[in-house]
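Would you mind writing out a protein's amino acid sequence and the numbers that encode its backbone to help me picture the idea?
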Amino acid sequence: MASKLFVKDRYISPISYLINHNIQEWDISKANISVLLRKGAITREKYNYYYNLPKHKREVSIGCLMRDNPNISKAVSEGLMEARKNFIEANNVEDWNILYIDKDSITTIDLNHMVIHEFGPVNFRSKSKYTSFYRLFGIDLLYFNDGNNESFRLKNANERIIPLHMQWFLDMVLAICYNGQEDIYGTLQMIKGLYAKYVAKQFPIEFYREFNQRSEFKFKTSGVFEYYTDIPPDSTGRDLIDILYNSNVLRVFYKIFAIEYFKIAKRR
């Protein structure tokens, strides 16, 4: 039976990880003006006007229109729900097939044969594809690797996180994701080795920046914790750095791959 989750503007699946799955994000191009045209809330001429505006100016203009006219805001909300309903019912999408709903986008799991029915000017298009997914406390990591190309997205993360962690802890995480799609047992052993070195503080200090929204170094000095945006002075002392947050991220990965390893072992 097709999912009824289309009524939700926002939805997050309780699934905590996926390895080697077909994960796709679908969204509506120029969603607000497309649903307004379909609902008859704006004319084709107005649609063309907004369509040709630069993205930021279009978003601001429609935002002001929705703020000043409750009927416009209602039309957008209803139109997006109708579009989600059409997409879900046309493809017989079940609850377990939905990873996220974000108003004008739906991220699906293992829908390999999609039927995108015409819905007037409102149509979902394939935006991004991923092959694995991991929920790492407050950050969701969507990872893609097909053997030739690699990409990723950090959902619920601010734009500072990637540049602060790239070449350091994020590279370690991506290496786990890459190996995890190829060799479950080997990845389990890999994480075990990384964890041992990590808690022994054998990596460069940049690896110990916390992998979260704050993305700072945490030190315990004089019995209290202090955060530093940049690497603190050498006098702070490497031994005082708090490594709990990132070591717990590695523990999450270890638990995931231990579960997957034992699933395989049971089938043998």
